[in-house]
Write a structure and sequence with these properties.
Layout lengths: L5 H5 L3 E5 L4 H13 L5 E7 L3 H13 L5 H7 L3 H8 E6 L11 H10 L2 E4 L10 H21 L5 E5 L10 E3 L18 H17 L4 H18 L5 H16 L4 E7 L1 E3 L15 H10 L5 E3 L8 E3 H14 L5 E7 L9 H14 L16 E3 L2 H25 L5 H25 L3 E3 L2 H12 L16 H18 L1
Parallel strand pairs: 1-2, 1-4, 2-3, 4-5, 5-7, 6-13, 7-11, 8-10, 9-12
Helix pairs in contact: 2-12, 7-8, 7-10, 8-9, 9-10, 13-17, 14-15
């Protein structure tokens, strides 16, 4: 693998980015504009009905964010001119053919000019409606690769997936592709056309029964989980992402294809500044629940490894992989995580939460600091059910009876406890497959990419993506948790 300066590679390039209002896409855009303002053009595809709606979303959800403050300080009043010159907004939707681009002139311009495509469009909800997840994560991947093959001068496609397409597999998880029809449990018959028909038939049946929108949403969420578990995947998200990988692998022909599989993505480690994050990610829900005093116990293997990777490292790996694979036909998979090179255990994560919220307690709605203590970690589902029954459910039942007897005198206490129990039960159900996850992600290909970058003058200091340099205690207590509190929970 030969590569030179990444900054030079980016000069005069035209890049299409899908999912342009997403977390990683914003960091990607900011990085490119900051380190290589001589990029030729960035086509940003975002879901919008027209150009006006696209511009509104872009200004509110992308450049209006604090993430761009370093770039604003660097460019001053010239930032708007830079964005106007370099960025072309594309109203569209990857769940449609031709990426839903309605303007034929704009579509032709894209087909003629694009050098590289970064597919970041995804829905990441574990329990997303099956029709939505299949449309974006699976069929969307097909539409992107078909569009790429029609581009006259495209040199590489980077398709961003997730490391958790492996399901609940343990041991060392290889950077290996999925073949069309592969399943995790050996059950035969997985066919993407069939999955699409299943969705269409279910929707037709629900509409014929005049189901409400709420009932349709619930039914489609249930259908996604049913179809995923039928073939061995724990949820709709990872199932539809795995099928997306199958499609791009099958349809690539001679197109250079990179599939990048990040693990759990956390706040920025270093650039444009430490701690920027958006949206509650898996582990952040737990941290916030704990800080607010809602989480006094949790379920999981204390010695288990949780694989997290800062967002800026993921973006840097995307950029370096793009530069390394231009005009290199074939498919390569990069797993971007920390579990092999710098493993982090759940027990340490628990300690970091206690340290941070003891020093910086959460202030509740009454203006009082929430006192946190050591969290009880339960090592099995059986011990979790026993703990909940003894500690909460009997007490809740007693409160319910007392509440009825005393004319709802205990209503506030009852509602508060009931809410806390529901919060814990929902988190457990959603994250259960990962609480006892026994896998670590092989990153041999990723390490080869890092070595090639170091050896060929690819500005490793600018495009750093080696998690070995992270001090997890410092990162969580001084960067990540403060970032979540500042940018997400506010």
């Amino acid at each position: 693998m030969e590569m030179g300066s990444v900054i030079q590679f980016l000069e005069n390039k035209t890049i299409l980015v899908t999912g342009a209002t997403g977390f990683l896409a914003k960091i990607f855009l900011e990085k490119i504009l900051r380190v290589q303002p001589n990029v030729k053009k960035l086509f940003l595809l975002l879901r919008a009905s027209d150009a006006k709606a696209a511009a509104h979303r872009f200004h509110n959800e992308v450049v209006g964010k604090d993430l761009f403050r370093v770039l604003k300080e660097k460019c001053g009043p010239d930032l708007n001119a830079l964005v106007s010159e370099k960025v072309t907004l594309i109203p569209g939707d990857i769940s449609h053919d031709d990426l839903g681009v309605k303007d034929p002139d704009l579509r032709q311009q894209m087909l003629d000019q694009i050098d590289a495509i970064i597919n970041l469009a995804a829905t990441t909800k574990f329990d997303e409606r099956y029709d939505v997840a299949l449309g974006i994560n699976t069929l969307g991947a097909k539409h992107v690769i078909n569009f790429a093959k029609n581009c006259g001068k495209v040199q590489v496609l980077v398709h961003v997936s997730t490391a958790y397409v492996c399901g609940e597999k343990g041991g060392l998880i290889q950077e290996a592709p999925y073949q069309m029809g592969d399943t995790l449990n050996g059950v035969a018959g997985l066919n993407i056309d069939t999955e699409r028909k299943v969705v269409e038939e279910k929707l037709s049946e629900l509409r014929a029964d005049r189901a409400t929108e709420e009932a349709i949403t619930l039914a489609m969420k249930d259908l996604g989980i049913q179809r995923a578990t039928r073939y061995g995947w724990p949820n709709t998200y990872v199932f539809t992402k795995a099928m997306g990988e199958m499609l791009v692998g099958q349809l690539k022909e001679n197109l250079p294809l990179v599939i990048l599989r990040p693990t759990i993505i956390t706040s920025t480690f270093k650039e444009p500044f430490p701690g920027w994050v958006e949206g509650l990610r898996t582990i952040d829900s737990l941290a916030v629940g704990y800080g607010k005093g809602k989480l006094t116990c949790f379920l999981g293997d204390e010695k288990g490894v949780i694989d997290v990777i800062p967002a800026d490292m993921v973006v840097n790996s995307i950029i370096v992989a793009m530069a390394a694979h231009v005009n290199q036909p074939g498919e390569v998979i990069y797993q971007m995580g920390s579990s092999v090179r710098n493993p982090l255990q759940y027990c340490h994560l628990k300690d970091y939460g206690l340290q941070y919220f003891t020093k910086h307690p959460w202030i509740n709605k009454d203006g009082k600091p929430v006192k946190v203590g050591p969290i009880k970690v339960l090592g099995s589902m059986a011990s979790f059910h026993r703990y909940m029954a003894v500690r909460y459910l009997l007490w809740l039942k007693g409160l319910e009876l007392a509440n009825a007897a005393f004319c709802k005198y205990f209503q506030g206490t009852y509602m508060d406890l009931n809410r806390k129990i529901k919060f814990v039960m929902r988190l457990i159900e959603l994250y259960r497959p990962y609480l006892f996850f026994k896998g670590v992600f092989d990153d041999m290909n990723t390490e080869k990419l890092r070595m090639a970058a170091r050896e060929s003058g690819a500005e490793s200091d600018v495009f750093y993506f080696d998690p070995k340099c992270i001090d997890w205690a410092d990162y969580f207590t001084n960067i990540h948790i403060p970032g979540v509190v500042k940018y997400v929970v506010k």
